Amino acid sequence: MTSSLNAKKGGDNARIDAWLLTATLLLAGFGLVMVLSASGIMAERDFGDKYFFFKRQLMFTGVGLAAMLACMQIPRKVLYSLTYVWVGLAVVMLALCLTPLGASVKGASRWISVGPFSIQPLEYAKVALVFYLAYFFARKQDLVRTFSVGFLPPFMVTGMLSGLLLLQPDFGGAVVLCGLLFFMCLAGGTRFSYLFISLIFAAGAGWMLISSSPYRFKRWTAFMDPFASAQTEGYQLVQSLYAFGSGKIFGTGIGAGQRKLFFLPEAHNDFIMAVVGEELGFVGMSLFFLTIGFFLYRAFRIAMKLDDLQDRFTAFGTTCILALGMVLNLAVVLGTVPPKGVAMPFISYGGSSLTVSFICAGILLNLSRRVEA
Q1: Calpha distance 260→169 (Å, rounded)
Q2: Alpha carbon distance 136, 139 (integer Å)
Q3: Fewer Cβ in 10 A, N or C end of the chain?
Q4: Is the model's pTM score more than 0.85?
């Protein structure tokens, strides 16, 4: 297989990165298989149909593929021209979560109810923020190292979005947006002294939010020693670790895992990688790591080879959305960071996460046309 695929006549190079497309489809297909395996028991108990979540995920995959194809075909200049529209829509969607349209789950209003479905605005806010930051840093390179122009505007926009998330409350979502801001600022040329001071203030503010909130503080202590509260706050992480341990070298086989039998909460959502670890073992997890590593390599390669600054920053930020999701999800299920609901891109059940993952892939494939084969 060549490294490029003829997509259409005309355009820049009229080619998209076939390796990235292949890796995307492999991850999405694998996600469908694992959602089917991880969700059947719960779906049969709650809905009387063991394929309930799988059929919905299959539908979400169709929507995601359509979104990816659209992002591949829409001229990038059109996407860029709507940068402030994307940010405005993100603000409106996050604000709607705080209205009666917001769906409250476990005390947090992080979704917008649309009939039988729910939309998580955070996922779309990530893309909107990346478009804004790419636009900003591409056009302010001569002033990017100043405080008033190169530092304040991107921090104010990110702070506005993060503030709306904290009101839901979604502390983890705000941390993810701040992480995107940090990496985009590093790539964009913001003075490191500004970023270092910001990190100190952010760490202090984060600790205040954790220590002042009983449920956040319990999550923190459970992360530090999950087995000390194995039946309460640490239960989910303990079950996740048991799942990985049960997988050993070759795993129990797809469909044969035990932790998903009502032991591991959110087995088909945020903790689906624990099911992967149990059923496919060390070998299966290693192959998965190689796949996501190859995906990220091709994505970052596109960003590095683009000549236009806005293209480069957009590709870099879009890749960071997926990379942060992958790294944070694995870190949570392996117990190396405090618990936070972070979906594994392309793998976890959920329409918003899956659709945005495909959107990011579509943007990268669109920009890959401007990279020489």
Answers
A1: 28
A2: 5
A3: N
A4: yes
What's the Cα-to-Cα distance from 199 to each of 163, 164, 176, 193, 194, rounded to whole Å?
A: 17, 20, 14, 10, 9
Q: Name the one residue in this structure whose structure tokens are 């539908």.
A: 59
Q: Which residue has the higher pLDDT, 236 or 330?
A: 330
What's the confidence (pLDDT) of residue 2?
A: 38
Cα within 13 Å of Cα(37), Cβ side: 26
pLDDT digits (tens, 9 = 90+) for 5-36: 444 433 455 689 999 999 999 999 999 999 99
Tokens standing for 130? 């990346």
Residue 174: both structure tokens together: 């705000």
In which residue are the tokens 């944070």 written? Answer: 328
Q: Which long-range contacts (CB under 8 A, 24 or more apart) does 241-248 make?
A: 241/334, 241/335, 243/274, 243/275, 243/277, 243/278, 244/274, 244/277, 244/278, 244/333, 244/334, 246/278, 247/277, 247/278, 247/279, 247/280, 247/281, 247/282, 247/284, 247/285, 248/281, 248/282
pLDDT in tens, 290-324: 999 999 999 999 999 999 999 999 999 999 999 99
